[in-house]
C-alpha cells in the first residue's frame, strides 16, 4: 500500500512519528 510506504519513509527519514510530522510540519508549518 502506497500510504504505508509513505508513512514508513517519514518514520525512517525523520526519526519521529508520521503524526507529529503531518500535524507539526505540513498542516501547521512553524518555520
Automatic annotation (TrEMBL):
Organism: Salmonella enterica (Salmonella choleraesuis)
Domain HTH araC/xylS-type: 1-24
InterPro entries attached to this UniProt entry: HTH_AraC
GO MF annotation list: DNA-binding transcription factor activity; sequence-specific DNA binding
Protein name: AraC family transcriptional regulator
Amino acid at each position: 500500500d502506497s500510504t504505508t510506504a509513505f508513512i514508513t519513509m517519514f518514520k525512517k527519514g525523520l526519526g519521529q512519528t508520521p503524526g507529529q510530522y503531518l500535524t507539526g510540519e505540513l498542516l501547521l508549518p512553524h518555520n
